[in-house]
Design a protein that fits this description.
By secondary structure, the protein is an alpha/beta fold. It contains 27 helices and 26 strands. Helices cover 39% and strands 14% of the residues. Among the domains are: 2-132; 164-311, Rossmann fold (3-Layer(aba) Sandwich), CATH 3.40.50; 643-867, Leucine-rich repeat, LRR (right-handed beta-alpha superhelix) (Alpha-Beta Horseshoe), CATH 3.80.10. Keywords: ATP-binding, Leucine-rich repeat, Lyase, Nucleotide-binding, Plant defense, Repeat. GO terms for molecular function: adenylate cyclase activity; ADP binding; ATP binding. InterPro entries: Apaf_helical, LRR_dom_sf, LRR_R13L1-DRL21, NB-ARC, P-loop_NTPase, Rx_N, WH-like_DNA-bd_sf, WHD_DRP. Residues 672-820 form the R13L1/DRL21-like LRR repeat region domain.
Length: 867
């Protein structure tokens, strides 16, 4: 609640500073609301600490309702103000002038005044009751600053396998047994939650000897629902809506005769018949195929196992202390404080050898940077409460949550909307937090996404996230939640969050964040659905009508307070113009709607929209022009029929994500200068159809539109690729003489492309560059000055004959060359060639032509990319 109270105060301050007619006569009301909300906000921490008191709990529920209503009202007002400002700048039409006429403002202001006074009246009652409840002021919380020197994401896997050496070797001996006679064997790993069953399975699954042993390796997180079709689809890596008959045929075909390793993680099903049905699909693997099952249930192990179960026990005290030390002390080094160490050992004993509990409590003590007296308080006060709990391990995990600042509690609770085993994309999760208003206002000029990154790292350092994956540049890409931590998130969220099989009438009146994991069952609009701020459709099943029709949208458009709407893979064909009524919307994900052709111009009436995701909308042809400056993230991956960018894109100076920039506007020259002002872009940018700029190559050369984009990490520059093979290239490559007019044309193209590439110099912090279809003979010298460049990929550059001199001064980790000129390929493929000594320091070099490599050098990729 502290977060939403902060948002309200921020909006009230903004409104107080605005000079426009709508609120000129409401300033006293605004100031009074600021004063009341500030007084209430001051006691929120005290109220949360006393939430076990029923009266205080009810007081907090009433406060939440009025705060959310106030937030919606103020957001509505700020949206109207923004609309008015933008329309004035665009020379408003007559109907707009009427809307903002003096008489209209009086009516709107009068209505608004009544609504503000009604909310103020409710706030006054709540403020009066806080005195009756004897709630006291507490200072505001500040974010926990995680310690940079601590590489949380790398030590987790090592910590969790402390003391599991014997189990690891036993499990590997089963998998590597050459005397096995069964086609498929099943090894269960059994233990209570938090003992490290999944981590042990991961350790073995990723072992080099095990990887070499099996032809096919599959990992399926099963969790609560033992759905045979879903398990089979996950094994194949395919979520298409096929019938079970097709699924089982494809699965059998995929594994037949192949020695495979399958991990079924977190199995709860104790129905033997369901296991036998799945078993009938997967028993046709090659001799020596193995299945590892992780489960908390001995019954599951008895039903599924062909080997004796491997029972995990808690760590002994020595190993428990070793794990705790690694997590709770800098560098795992024990401090020279005997009393502190003695307190720590007593705390570790309470964790009963459960690695997850040890990591969580150790991370809590570390992150707070607490002294001896604080550790003693944890031991004598906090753990005395835990001793009274039936499930002590879960109580320890909750202790970590209880000590989170309120703004981190919101971010943590939000993760409950996603299923167990869900792989969170870090950037997406942060975008959702921003859209929900969970990020506290920062005193500096940082974007909210940067603050969100700190929030993420705080939760990670507290061991509330795990199984982190790292991208090529050492940044965190994805993470997961342990099942017990996910259970904790679902328990602490209360009535505000709900996860359902479909939208029904029984959604609680106080439910504001909703996810549906399978299909949607649309009902008539009910008052309970009108409070929703988030609707996430996470399931794979299709609607009964096979597409998203008007009746579905009628329901959605009645939920006027929505901030986040995710409708992925639902066969949506059209978006109605009436979507403009969702004026609070910040986040809209329409990805994987393969038949969506157009977006309505009314989408630009969503003045608060920050994130628009349209990836894999294969049929999408056009984007609305003049999108609003509020837009920060625009994702367009795999939009194959999209041929141009919307006009006005260059005005979106807050844009941080733009996956693609297209230059060919239906035969008209695209405007590369639109990129000039987009200096907040991060991540990856792909620019296509650069050949359309050849007639204006000199202008591009001098423009330098990319050089100030210091936050970009990847840049892909693509000319038109007509798919020609080397055999189709001009005869003069083979030594013949081209006709003069053709050679003159080729020479002009070389010069134009070299000028274009010269003008596309990125900031020297760029980490990866892909150059595809370029027709110049040489690469520009600026490539040799990109001190951060790690990967250079050159594709289909049929005229390129040399690499720049400066490449030998770079710290490149990969150099890939695909389908380029015979001259360049020969030089790079020959050990004694002219260019090879210059790039001998690069760890991975791959020269690739057609279907086979000409030459590889150290660390070539497992799955080489083809042109």
């Amino acid at each position: 609640m502290e977060a939403i109270a902060g948002i309200i105060l921020q909006n009230l301050n903004t409104l107080a500073q605005e000079e426009f007619g709508i609120i000129w006569n409401l300033k006293d009301d605004v100031e009074q609301m600021k004063s009341t909300v500030s007084a209430i906000k001051a006691v929120l921490l005290d109220a949360e600490a006393k939430a076990n008191n029923l009266q205080i709990s009810n007081w907090m529920e009433e406060l939440k309702d009025v705060l959310y209503d106030a937030d919606d009202l103020l957001d509505d007002l700020s949206t109207e103000a923004l609309k008015r400002k933008l329309m004035r700048g665009n020379k408003i039409l007559r109907d707009v002038q009427i809307f903002f006429s003096h008489s209209n403002q009086i009516v709107y202001g009068s209505k608004l005044g009544h609504e503000i006074k009604a909310i103020q009246k409710r706030l006054d009652v709540i403020a009066k009751n806080k005195i009756t409840l004897q709630l006291t002021d507490r200072p505001m919380e500040t974010p926990i600053s995680y310690r940079e020197q601590r590489q949380t994401y790398s030590f987790v896997s090592k910590d969790e396998v402390i003391g599991r050496e014997d189990e690891n070797e036993l499990l590997k001996s089963y998998l590597l047994d050459t005397n096995v006679t069964d086609n498929v064997s099943v090894v269960p790993i059994v233990g209570i939650g938090g003992l490290g069953k999944t981590t042990l399975a991961q350790l073995v699954y990723n072992d080099h000897a095990v990887q070499r042993r099996f032809q096919q390796k599959m990992w399926v997180c099963v969790s609560d629902e033992f759905d045979i079709k879903k398990i089979a689809q996950k094994m194949m890596g395919n979520d298409k809506n096929s019938e079970i008959e097709q699924v089982q045929q494809h699965l059998r075909s995929m594994i037949q005769g192949k020695k495979y390793l399958l991990v079924l993680d977190d199995v709860w099903n104790e129905d033997r018949e369901l296991w036998l049905k799945l078993k009938s699909l997967i028993m046709e693997g090659g001799k020596g195929s193995m299945i590892i099952v992780t489960t908390r249930s001995r019954t599951v192990a008895n039903i599924m196992g062909t080997h004796p179960p491997l029972f995990l026990k808690g760590l002994d005290l020595e190993r428990s202390w070793k794990l705790f030390s690694q997590v709770a002390f800098d560098g795992g080094k024990e401090p020279n404080d005997r009393e502190l160490l003695a307190i720590g050992r007593d705390i570790v004993k309470k964790c009963a050898g459960v690695p997850l509990a040890i990591r969580v409590i150790g991370s809590l003590l570390y992150s707070r940077n607490l002294g001896r007296s604080d550790w003693l308080y944890f031991k004598e006060v906090e753990f005395s409460k835990i001793d009274q709990e039936k499930d002590k391990i879960f109580a320890i995990l909750k202790l970590s949550y209880d000590h989170l600042p309120s703004f981190l509690k919101n971010c943590f609770a939000y993760c409950s909307l996603f299923p167990k085993g869900f792989e969170f994309d870090k950037k997406t999760l942060i975008q959702l937090w921003v859209a929900e208003g969970f990020i506290q206002p920062s005193n500096d000029i940082r974007y909210e996404e940067n603050v969100g990154h700190e929030y993420f790292m705080n939760l990670l350092s507290m061991s509330l996230f795990q199984d982190v994956t790292i991208d090529d540049y050492g940044d965190i890409s994805t993470c997961k939640m342990h099942d017990l931590i996910h259970d904790l998130a679902q328990i602490v969220v209360g009535k505000e969050y709900a996860t359902v099989e479909g939208i029904k009438e029984n959604i609680g009146n106080r439910t504001r964040y909703l996810s549906s994991r399978t299909t949607l069952h649309f009902a008539d609009t009910s008052s309970s659905s009108c409070t929703l701020r988030t609707l996430l459709v996470l399931g794979q099943k299709r609607f009964e009508s096979n597409n998203f029709d008007r009746s579905h949208f009628r329901f959605l458009l009645s939920i006027k307070c929505l901030r986040v709407l995710t409708l992925c893979g639902l066969d949506i064909i059209t978006i109605p113009k009436s979507i403009k009524v969702l004026k609070h919307l910040r986040y809209l994900d329409l990805s994987r709607n393969h038949f969506l052709v157009n977006l309505p111009p009314e989408l630009t009436s969503l003045y608060n929209l920050q994130t628009l995701k349209l990836s894999q909308c294969f049929k999408l042809k056009k984007l609305p022009s003049d999108m609003n400056e509020s837009l920060r993230h625009l994702e367009l991956n795999d939009c194959g029929e999209l041929t141009c960018m919307p006009s006005g894109l260059g005005q979106l100076t807050n844009l941080q994500t733009l996956t693609h920039f297209l230059l060919d506007c239906g035969g008209r020259r695209g405007n590369i200068s639109e990129l000039r002002g987009l200096n907040s872009l991060t991540g990856k940018l792909e620019i296509r159809w650069l050949d359309s700029l050849r007639e204006h190559a000199a202008v591009v050369e001098s423009s330098k539109v990319l050089v100030e984009k210091q936050h970009l990490q990847e840049l892909e520059l693509r000319w038109w690729n007509d798919g020609k093979e080397i055999s189709e290239w001009p005869s003069w490559w083979g030594g013949g003489i081209a006709e003069p007019h053709l050679q003159e044309k080729e020479n002009k193209r070389w010069l134009e492309d070299e000028k274009i590439l010269e003008g596309l110099q990125p900031h020297d912090s760029i980490k990866k560059i892909v150059i595809d279809g370029y027709c110049g003979k040489t690469l520009p010298d600026w490539i040799g000055n990109l001190w951060s460049l790690k990967s250079l990929e050159i594709r289909n550059c049929i005229d390129l004959i040399s690499l720049p001199e400066g490449i030998r001064n770079l710290s490149l980790q990969r150099l890939y060359i695909y389908n380029c000129s015979p001259v360049l390929e020969t030089r790079c493929a020959t050990i004694n060639g002219e260019d090879w000594p210059k790039i001998a320091h690069i760890p991975a070099v791959l020269v690739w032509k057609g279907g086979s490599p000409l030459s590889t050098k150290r660390g070539s990729p497992e799955r080489p990319m083809t042109p």
